[in-house]
Amino acid sequence: LILIICLSVDLDEERPLASRGLAVLLIVALWWLTEVLPLTVSSLFPIVLYPLLAVATPSALASKFFGGTSFLFVGGFIIGLAIERWGLHIRIICAVVCNTGKRPDVLLAGFMGAVFLLSMWISNTATAVCMMP
What we know:
mainly alpha; 9 helices; 133 residues
């Protein structure tokens, strides 16, 4: 319904593809808000819909979606999932607590060192989540 309405109305005469882009934006935003599909699936729909509606070329989209920074984050997320899958985060927490003793200052220093080492390979958000009890 959104697609039909947006395609039948021209938002800007100078930019006829604006209504098609708005249709894709509204569809994806609606799917994100209602979570009809998983967010990872609905986030990839512009890659499919923009070339089908002739809004953008696949090469232009690929340069935006698959840049070096995107793959850096994906690599960090994969490492974070591997840490969670094999329980490494629990092992790290147990090792820090067992080796630092009962003194709060040494315990804090142990956690700071563990977070420092983990944040070299995964994002800071994933590191903080890994270190939560």
